[in-house]
Amino acid sequence: LLLSLLAAAPVLLLIAAYALSPSSAGAPIAARLRVPYPAVIAHRGLSAWAPEETRAAYLLARELGADYLEADVQRTSDGVLIALHDDTLERTTDVAAVFPERRGRGADAFTWQELQRLDAGSWWNAAHPERARPAYAGLRILRLEELLDLAAPAAARGGAPGPGLYLETKGAGRYAGYEREIVALLRARGWLDPPPGGAPAAMARVLFQSFVPESLVRLRELAPEVPRVLLIDRKDVGKEPWRAFVQRAAALGAGIGPSGYEGMPWHTGPAHLAGLLVHHYTINQEWQLRLLRQLGSDGVFTDSADRALAVFGRLGGRERTAVLAEAFTKTGL
Ligand code: G3P
Ligand code: CA
Questions:
Q1: 8-state DSSP, 88
Q2: How far apart are CA 327 and CA 81, in angstroms?
Q3: Residues of the chain whose pLDDT is less than 70?
Q4: In the chain, which end has fewer C-beta atoms inside a 10 angstrom radius, N or C?
């Protein structure tokens, strides 16, 4: 009997924890923040199907109906804000061929004009021949301004409201003053304006995210109205009790962004009790999406917005493959 109880302990623990933290606990938090629930956040765009953080990846995510376009914001040597994940350009561009002497340098070692000479799409075709497309060859690194234009509501799309932006200050601490520049650009383009007529916003159009608490402090000073999410690095989990991460996130903003491994009820439950939204990264497989949803995740950063939308019942009963094919046709890719 003792052995049976011991064997069943993990399952019993999970059931008990689940009872304490039901899967819908984050719904009122999301409603208060006006964040879609559960949120589908297109991680680097539709990056399972197109080169990450390029116009193609973001166009596809927009056409599919992702709630937010996720981007890692960095800055060139001449002060242009761009979307780029890595610390160097080697993995996602042909920098090694174009600027061999600077191949291991960061975005801030190049001017915008120089970055425009790089091909940010052909690497994808080589790495993913089964998903390669001629249109991807020669794609350019995207300016943040271009991303704003792409996500903005457009008469050409029947006045569709367009997705929101979920911006990570990836260069926090590296690019002095750049949070101010990000906020200034968003303000200049009207992204932080309240809706006309004093009506409440239908949806939070911008969220900020960062692994760097100091960056969120700066963003709070610059744009207190924008929800902030503290990302949690997997390698830091375990160094402190989980409640310390929750307390830090609650002191800094509205949400916490852990990896999917921190998706258990004893992670998500305390975050909800602290009034935090919980968005997990980077969740791509159907079983992961289903499990995290059951366990109370409020949204996912996903490379496969198509799959997340399907799992969350957001495709109006249509087949995922059909919706995806239509998005490719509409975007001309
Ligand atoms: O921003 C959420 C998730 O993107 C964090 O990981 O490395 O993909 O920026 P990373
Ligand atoms: Ca990111």
A1: S
A2: 27
A3: 1-2, 5, 10, 12-21, 155-156
A4: N
Whether residue 84 contacts residue 72, with contact meaning beta carbons closer than 8 Å, is answered with yes
Query: What are the counts of helices (DSSP H) followed by strands (DSSP E) for the chain?
Result: 14, 10
Closest-CA residue, ligand 1 atom 5, reads: 281
Closest CA to 140 of 69, 51, 211: 51
Give residue-wise pLDDT tens across range 63-72.
Answer: 999 999 999 9
pTM beyond 0.90, yes or no: yes
Q: How far apart are the first and last CA of the chain?
A: 61
Residue 174: other Cβ atoms inside 10 A: 15
Phi-psi region of 122 (alpha: psi -120 to 50; beta: other; left: phi over 0): alpha
Ramachandran quadrant class, 74 (left: phi over 0; alpha: psi -120 to 50; beta: rest): beta
Question: Does ligand 1 lie within 6 Å of residue 136's CB atom?
Answer: no
Measured in angstroms, how far is the CA atom of residue 265 from the centroid of ligand 1? 22
Nearest CA to ligand 1 atom 1: 168
Q: Is 280 exposed, middle or buried (0-12, 13-18, 19+ CB in 10 A)?
A: buried
User: What's at 74, amino acid-wise?
Assistant: Q
Whether ligand 1 lies within 6 angstroms of the CB of 281 is answered as yes
Q: What is the helix (H) or strand (E) element at residue 42, kind and residue range?
A: strand 39-42
Give tens-digit pLDDT for 120-170. 999 999 999 999 999 999 999 999 999 999 999 776 677 778 999 999 999
| 2: DSSP letter | H
Rounded to 5°, the CA angle 236-238-241 comes to: 110
Q: CB under 8 Å to 175, separation ≥6 — which residues?
A: 74, 75, 108
Which of 264, 256, 263 shows the shortest CA–CA distance to 211? Answer: 256
What distance lies between CA 100 and its chain's CA centroid? 31
Bridge partners of 71?
167
